[in-house]
Amino acid sequence: MTASHGSAPTPAPGAWVVGGSSGIGRATAARLARDGYEVVVSGRRAELLDAVVRDITADGGRARAVPVDVTDTASLTAAYARITAELDGPLELLVCSAGTNVRNRWWSDLTAADFDRVVDTNLHSVTRCALTVLPGFRRAGFGQIVVVSSWAGWQYMSAAGAAYSAGKTALGALVQTLNDQEGRSGVRATHLCPGEVATDILRTRPVPPPEEELARMLDPDDVAEAIGWLAGLRAKVCVNELVLTPVHNRMYVDTSAYPPQEA
Fold first, then answer.
1. Which of 38, 93, 105, 228: disulfide with 15, CB 3.0–4.6 Å?
2. C-alpha angle with apex 31: 80 to 247, nearest 5 degrees?
3. Pairwise CA distance, residues 150 & 98, whole Å
4. CA 46 vs CA 42, 52, 120: distances in Å
5. Statement: the pTM of the whole predicted model exceeds 0.85
6. Pairing label, strands 14-18, 38-42
7. Measured between alpha carbons, how far is 31 from 224 in angstroms, rounded to an integer?
8. CB contact at 8 A, 102 and 161
9. Taking the CA of residue 155 as centre, how many other CA atoms within 13 Å lie in the half-sphere pointing to its CB?
10. What are phi and psi of 108, to 5 degrees?
11. Those residues with Cβ within 8 angstroms of residue 21's Cβ, 6 or more apart along the chain or in another chain
């Protein structure tokens, strides 16, 4: 990303990965840095963010850590001001990868406080992040938002529970409003719906998957590769929704009417 004929280097574009301290967010930050972005990783745990930055810089990439609480608008506003002041190039990409769930997710055990916490992190935080970056994207005439959702945001998934299902399903409509209202300003958004990914959040399920099933699932690098592809598309291209799953997809296998065939 440098200019030729001895001119000054072109500043690298900036990418802000919210929820970048672990799992899909961490893998995405590393992938985008390899693709030439100057990456900002955000989350609540500063020590984990610093570890991500060390790994990226050791690999020759550019990254910085900016702690943030996605449930706090003031925290996001302050983080954005710092990011735009410190980046060498323009902020062009926002990846919303913060997510959570609770173990007690059936209606018989669910509390209102747990429901609110899950929806606030999985849905409302995306709204806060989008509202934070959109004015700058409009002024620039380009910007991209990738919302990491879930199979549960695309089709009903019993294991996800009430709060997670409600929040993730709403993300699909949220992304459509972004493309409807902001596409004319050059802003594009993707509702990214991975199937099962072997991350720590699966261990919060009432019955965590066994190790042999985890090995068949997507891993964070698989999802990061998809995000890297989305970011590399020409500016006029918008992928409104993208669903990716493991080939051995338990969402089908567990409900299939067809018995397994013998080898």
1. 93
2. 120
3. 12
4. 8, 10, 21
5. yes
6. parallel
7. 6
8. yes
9. 10
10. -70, -20
11. 41, 43, 44, 45, 48, 49, 51, 52
Q: Which residues of the chain have pLDDT under 50?
A: 1-5
Residue with tokens 């983080």: 79
As a whole number of angstroms, the distance between CA 148 and CA 64 comes to 21
Dihedrals φ, ψ of 18, to 5°?
Answer: -90, 125
Separation between Cα atoms, residue 192 and residue 42, nearest integer Å:
19
Q: Which residues are CB-neighbours of 77 under 8 A, at least 6 positions away?
A: 132
**Residue 257 CA neighbour count, 13 Å, CB half:** 0
**Three-state SS at 217:** coil
> Cβ(175)–Cβ(147) under 8 Å?
yes
Which pLDDT does position 2 carry in this prediction? 39
User: Is 126:174 a contact under the CB 8 Å cutoff?
Assistant: yes
Q: Give the long-range contacts of residues 98-101, CB within 8 A, separation 24 or more.
A: 98/18, 98/19, 98/25, 98/43, 98/70, 98/122, 98/125, 99/19, 99/148, 99/150, 99/201, 100/201, 101/160, 101/161, 101/163, 101/164, 101/201, 101/204, 101/205
Beta-bridged to residue 191, according to DSSP, are: 147, 241
Under 8 Å between Cβ of 168 and 120: no
Question: Could you tell me if 101 and 163 are in contact, meaning their C-beta atoms sit under 8 angstroms apart?
Answer: yes
